[in-house]
Write a structure and sequence with these properties.
20 helices, 49% helix, 430 residues
Length: 430
């Protein structure tokens, strides 16, 4: 039985009726709480959605006066709307209950963020929600990520539903995770689902903290959480059009120019209409047009993705984008690939530098074995990119100090440096 399975089997970590355990993990009837219990209703019912300044002020006061960590979640409309803005924010804190806030009606939540600035925020998969929370003025200084905690503790399934079921013994409904949260008014079943998402988040945090402490990994987790909280906003992605699905089929520079022009045209339309770019034109259609280089709108209409449902004006706007790309001079065409800032792809190492390829093979095997020993995913032990960089350009004098300094220079946390340095020194010295 793994450490994580022992945690799941420990009924003292499970709650009943949504409350922390008070009787050693027994149900309200006194029987052992073995079977997962469906969690159907929030403890205090579904709270009203906050849509005005007066109600928001009351929420800020209530949460400022609460105690302990605050559970935070956000719902986006991925696949429906342009961008990744929040369309609902959920919070729960002891002494304040649960709040559902409409950030469309209340777009500035900086007052709430400031009221909770010294409080630990509990999020699940924090890096997914922090960008949209930052946009509305909510930035934590301390956090606990229950998904990352689950990874470090060795749980094989770290989705919120799986973690709540395995650790706390409750079943969360997940049927509304991919709905269009920009819908107004939000249906009651969706609001119930949203409130339940933060119902047990602090309970889950407390149980995972105990498990991490038992495994000797709590300090590791704290370093990871601090790194997330202190990380600056990511830089805008350079040439995002190069991430078009199916780009591996596009080889010629003229075809790349068509992809770029169609992608940028689609992005402008999607932003103007506030819809997901994929609803304007699919990636597959962009690649089809780039490969075919159609001469006319009629030829374009024969391609997959530009069929009968597309009107003449739409066809003409896409054909105009193709024509703009075809009219570019050779010097204006995009380069075949993005500039490489790090090591080359590992598949090329054997030809470029056989010794580096051997180092990488040994390092990967050593890191994999250590990750298995520590019962966590390799990428949480150390990022693959960091391992590649150290193996491609190892320190001149390989030793614990130089390898540790190299890892730190690439952003590894102290606990990662401590764990990984010995196995990398051995691999680089072999």
């Amino acid at each position: 039985m793994t450490d994580a399975q022992e945690t799941a089997a420990d009924t003292s970590l499970r709650t009943t009726g949504g409350a922390p355990p008070e009787d050693g993990g027994t149900s309200v009837t006194g029987a052992p709480n073995a079977e997962p219990i469906p969690l159907l209703e929030p403890r205090e019912g579904i709270p009203p959605v906050i849509t005005d300044a007066a109600a928001l002020a009351d929420v800020i006061a209530a949460f400022a006066g609460g105690t302990g960590p605050v559970a935070v979640d956000a719902e986006r409309a991925s696949g429906y709307r342009y961008g990744q803005r929040a369309y609902l924010v959920q919070l729960r804190r002891e002494g304040a209950g649960t709040a559902l806030i409409d950030p469309v009606a209340c777009p500035d939540l900086s007052g709430l963020g400031q009221a909770l600035s010294d409080v630990e925020w509990v999020l699940h998969a924090a890096t997914q929600d922090l960008p949209c929370l930052r946009e509305i003025g909510m930035v934590p200084t301390r956090l606990f990520d229950t998904e990352l905690a689950g990874r470090l503790a060795g749980f094989p399934r770290v989705g919120l539903g799986a973690m709540v079921e395995n650790v706390l013994g409750f079943v969360l409904e997940k049927g509304h995770s991919a709905v269009d949260w920009s819908t107004r008014p939000l249906p009651e079943p969706w609001l119930r689902y949203a409130a339940l998402d933060v119902e047990l988040l602090v309970d889950l945090r407390d149980a995972l903290e105990k498990e991490l402490d038992r495994q000797g990994k709590l300090e590791w987790a704290r370093q990871e959480f601090d790194a997330i909280a202190s990380a600056p906003p990511p830089e805008p992605r350079k040439d995002p059009w190069r991430r078009t699905s199916g780009m591996h089929k596009v080889r010629r520079r003229r075809q790349l120019a068509v992809v770029r022009e169609l992608w940028q045209t689609r992005d402008r339309i999607a932003q103007r209409r506030d819809v997901s770019p994929g609803k304007v034109l699919s990636d597959a259609a962009i690649v089809e047009a780039a490969l075919a280089l159609p001469a006319t709108a009629q030829a374009l209409s024969a391609l997959n993705g530009f069929g009968n449902r597309m009107g003449r004006r739409q066809l003409e706007q896409w054909q105009a984008a193709v024509d703009r790309a075809k009219a570019l001079t050779e010097t204006q065409l995009p380069a075949p690939g993005q500039p490489v800032t790090g090591p080359p792809p590992p598949r090329a190492w054997a030809d470029k530098d056989p010794a580096a390829a051997a180092r990488l093979s040994a390092a990967r095997a050593a890191v994999s074995a250590l990750a298995e020993q520590l019962n966590m995913p390799q990428e949480n032990l150390i990022t693959p990119d960091t391992v590649r960089r150290v193996c491609w350009e190892p320190p001149k004098d390989v030793g614990p100090e130089t390898v540790g300094a190299a890892l730190s220079g690439y952003g590894a946390r102290p606990w990662q440096v401590e764990q990984v340095t010995p196995v990398l020194v051995a691999a680089l010295s072999a």
